[in-house]
């Protein structure tokens, strides 16, 4: 059954407009000045306090968000219904471990991977922890799920996911390939083959509207343009 636009509009909200009386975990998306999703993280609401857990590209951080300091006005959320409120305490504790232990390196590598409960990184292919803010969130969510069940079917994306953005990101792609060769020159081909791809922040946000796992790209595809349009429309209106 298709997800209606009004349902997306009702459940995609600014964090600053969100009630903090109930504990929850959500996908957060930061919107840039043009109204485009530019960064992803996880929002944790625990005991009426908001936290933003994310990978900046250099550091893994848990930012405490307070009204007294000014809540961000460009941070939208979609609550994850795959997690019960009773799990939020564990989720925050897991994220605190990752803040201390996880050491990802930035790059557009998406592989069959996740973080263990002790913060160690596991890759089915034995690849290094190279990821984006989106990939980091996917690995964290999978680490929380029972038996490390896949959250998103990442194999549905391939290097064609760069085609729409190739002009904007070509310099970054070239730089990342050069850096990957420095990290592991003998396995560069293996790292880039079928793992070098791009999953956008809005696509991760769109995944929050589904509960049946793993979430497939063909489910996200019709929702993503609506998410993009809703965010852009609110940005223009503000």
Mean pLDDT: 91
- Using only CA atoms, what is the Rg? 17 Å
Inertia-based shape: globular
List how many beta strands DSSP finds.
10
Largest beta-sheet characterization: 6 strands, antiparallel
Give the N-terminus to C-terminus distance in angstroms: 32 Å
Please report which band the strand proportion falls in: under 5%, 5-15%, 15-25%, 25-35%, 35-45% or over 45%: 15-25%
Order of adjacent strands in the largest pleated sheet = 1-6-2-3-4-5
Count of DSSP helices? 7
Oligomer: single chain
Q: What is the helix content?
A: 25-40%
Unreliable parts: none
Give the helices and strands as they follow along the chain. HEEEEEEHEEEEHHHHH
Structural class: alpha+beta
Could you give a quick summary of the protein structure above?
This protein is an alpha+beta fold and 238 residues long. The protein has helices at 5-11, 88-101, 133-144, 166-183, 188-192, 201-207, 217-237; strands spanning 13-14, 24-31, 37-46, 49-55, 60-65, 75-79, 105-106, 113-115, 121-123, 130-131.
Describe this structure in words.
The protein is of the alpha+beta class. Helices cover 35% and strands 20% of the residues. The chain contains 7 helices and 10 strands. The chain has helices spanning 5-11, 88-101, 133-144, 166-183, 188-192, 201-207, 217-237, and strands spanning 13-14, 24-31, 37-46, 49-55, 60-65, 75-79, 105-106, 113-115, 121-123, 130-131. A 6-stranded antiparallel sheet has the order 1-6-2-3-4-5. A two-stranded parallel sheet has the order 7-10. A hairpin with a 2-residue loop joins β3 and β4. α6 crosses α7 (217-237). The protein is globular, with a radius of gyration of 17 Å.
């Amino acid at each position: 059954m298709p997800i209606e636009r009004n349902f997306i509009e009702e459940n995609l909200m600014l964090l600053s407009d969100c009630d903090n009386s109930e504990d929850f975990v959500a996908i957060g998306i930061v919107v840039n000045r043009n109204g485009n999703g530019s960064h992803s993280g996880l929002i944790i609401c625990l005991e009426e306090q908001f936290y933003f857990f994310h990978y900046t590209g250099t550091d893994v951080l848990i930012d405490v968000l307070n009204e007294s300091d000014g809540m961000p006005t460009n941070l939208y959320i979609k609550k994850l219904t795959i997690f019960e409120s009773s799990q939020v305490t564990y989720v925050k504790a897991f994220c605190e471990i990752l803040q201390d232990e996880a050491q990802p390196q930035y790059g557009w590598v998406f592989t069959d991977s996740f973080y263990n409960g002790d913060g160690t990184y596991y890759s089915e292919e034995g690849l290094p922890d190279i990821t984006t803010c989106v990939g980091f969130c996917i690995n964290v969510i999978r680490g929380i799920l029972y038996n490390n069940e896949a959250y998103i079917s990442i194999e549905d994306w391939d290097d064609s996911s760069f085609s729409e953005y190739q002009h904007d990101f070509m310099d970054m792609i070239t730089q990342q390939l050069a850096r990957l060769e420095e990290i592991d020159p003998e396995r560069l081909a293996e790292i880039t083959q079928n793992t070098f791809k791009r999953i956008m922040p809005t696509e991760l946000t769109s995944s929050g509207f589904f509960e049946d796992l793993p979430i497939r790209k063909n489910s996200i595809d019709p929702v993503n343009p609506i998410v993009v349009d809703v965010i852009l429309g609110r940005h223009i209106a503000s």
